[in-house]
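pls design
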């Protein structure tokens, strides 16, 4: 089914230059787009490619428009943020063909009598929902998921297959948890006596806000005494580790394989946002954690960011890598247990 370019502008804004009645059926890259596609230009280095594109419609910025318009023959939608505009158009196209699971509980699911499941929610095959759990309106829980006792899943949240959501943890509205994500595991907390490790019970929760995306096989530990908090709008990629008692500020984004040490804190919406990659992996030794190449702060990392680890002879450890604690030789690291 085709979508009028004029309808897209009415829905999402922007300045339309060309035929408003032209219909497009999908989004495609600049180099492969054809007469039934809309494409976008968000990188000025690709102006020449955009100018020769066969796309019926093109989303671009006012800065790029004059150069592209000279040779591009299709209809243009001019907007200040073409990439964000593309994202919203992509969501719109995806929604037109999205499969919405039917409400109801699959016969193979195990749902405790005291659990509250909204009638509009979908609970798939072999799901387990324990006592006191609350499943909100229009929630989708795919096959094989586990929801622990007194956990709360906010409305319109989607748990893909085999997500584990442990007891008393909470997530707000419109969340997405991809397959293999584990929420509410025990934090890594031990005391030492006589060379023997003594486990510290992890009695806090994981509290997740609205509009949070959590990637596949990402793990978020519950707090030791207080809660681990993931604020609104946070985006976590695949295979990320969030340690116990962390606080990840609103609209923070982290790419795959980042590790965040216990008690670290990422600020809300650091300009332009707080972005961490696998090269900014955090480590923690004796209450010291280091955010590297990410504008983040941590009550557990204050000393790590201001005082470099010392060698046994008192000299500074080699500055051969980005994360200070990781630079120190094993013999130079404190052997005291972490106390997040």
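designed seq:
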């Amino acid at each position: 089914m085709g979508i009028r370019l004029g309808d897209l502008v009415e829905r999402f804004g922007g300045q339309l230059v060309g035929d408003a009645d032209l219909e497009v059926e999908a989004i495609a890259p600049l180099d492969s787009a054809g007469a039934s596609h809309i494409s976008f230009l968000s990188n000025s280095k690709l102006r020449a490619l955009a100018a020769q594109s066969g796309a019926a419609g093109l989303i671009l910025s006012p800065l790029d428009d004059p150069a592209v318009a000279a040779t591009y023959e299709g209809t243009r939608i001019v907007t200040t943020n073409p990439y964000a505009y593309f994202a919203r158009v992509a969501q719109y196209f995806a929604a037109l063909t999205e499969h919405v699971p039917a409400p109801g509980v699959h016969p193979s699911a195990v749902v405790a009598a005291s659990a509250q499941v909204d009638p509009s929610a979908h609970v798939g095959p072999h799901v387990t929902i324990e006592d006191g759990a609350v499943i909100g309106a229009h929630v989708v829980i795919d096959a094989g998921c586990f929801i622990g006792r007194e956990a709360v899943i906010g409305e319109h949240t989607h748990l893909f297959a085999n997500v584990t959501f442990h007891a008393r943890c909470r997530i707000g509205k419109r969340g997405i948890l991809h397959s293999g994500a584990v929420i509410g595991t025990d934090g890594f907390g031990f005391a030492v006596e006589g060379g023997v490790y003594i486990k510290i019970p992890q009695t806090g929760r994981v509290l997740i806000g609205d509009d949070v995306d959590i990637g596949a096989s990402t793990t978020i530990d519950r707090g030791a005494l207080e809660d681990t908090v993931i604020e609104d709008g946070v985006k976590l990629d695949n295979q990320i580790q969030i340690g116990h008692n962390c606080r990840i500020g609103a609209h923070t984004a982290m790419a795959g394989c980042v590790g965040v040490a216990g008690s670290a804190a990422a600020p809300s919406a650091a300009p332009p946002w707080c972005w961490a990659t696998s090269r900014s992996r955090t480590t923690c030794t004796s209450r010291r954690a280091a955010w590297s190449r990410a504008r983040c702060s941590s009550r557990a990392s204050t000393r790590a960011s201001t005082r470099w680890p010392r060698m046994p002879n008192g000299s500074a450890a080699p500055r051969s890598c980005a994360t200070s604690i990781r630079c120190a030789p094993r013999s130079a690291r404190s052997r005291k247990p972490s106390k997040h």
